[in-house]
Amino acid sequence: MGKKKQQPAALSMEEMQQRLAEIEVDREKLEMALKQRRRADLIEFAESLRGQITERGYQMDEVIALLEKKHKGTGRRRGNGQPHFVDPDDPSHTYRRGPLPAWLREKMEAAGYDPADKSHREAFKSDFLTRVG
Q1: Is residue 16 domain-resident?
Q2: What is the pLDDT of residue 120?
Q3: Boundaries of domain holding 95
């Protein structure tokens, strides 16, 4: 039968050191087994994906190119340091930077502001638009 484990407090210092060494060996074996299992699972998963890709009529290089591709052209990232302004009267009207949209120019002129003057644009944004970010 197996060796009965004693409570740690009942062990001598040498026995504790021996048990710690055994535990370390067991831990290393478990880590190696875990790495092997993870690798086997990854291979199985990759083969499953390969089958799905070919079943659907795609080429591996097409799919890999899409997976590696950065998301360019799918929209701008938010939070790039530029404030975002929203028209409180119509939340679908937004402005971040660049050429003024027609709705913003029209609103500025109607309120007596000159869209070509930077100080007027800044004053209008702070007085009439909601700043987000």
Answers
A1: yes
A2: 92
A3: 84-132
Q: Report the alpha-carbon distance of residue 20 to residue 28 in Å, rounded.
A: 12
Residue range 62-86, pLDDT digits in tens: 888 888 876 655 555 555 667 788 8
Model pLDDT, residue 75: 53
Q: What is the count of structural domains for the chain?
A: 2
Q: Quick one: pLDDT at residue 46?
A: 92
Does residue 89 share a domain with residue 49?
Answer: no
Q: Give CA–CA dist 94/86, Å, rounded.
A: 4
Query: What is the C-alpha to C-alpha distance for residues 44 and 46, in angstroms, rounded to an integer?
Result: 6
88 and 126 share one domain: yes
Rounded distance, CA 128 to CA 133, Å?
Answer: 16
Q: Are residues 49 and 88 in the same domain?
A: no
Residue at 68 is within a domain: no
Q: What is the reported pLDDT for 62?
A: 84
73 part of a folded domain = no
- Cα separation, 81 vs 98, in Å, equals 14
Hey, what amino acid is at 96? R
Cα–Cα distance for residue pair 26/30, rounded to 1 Å: 6
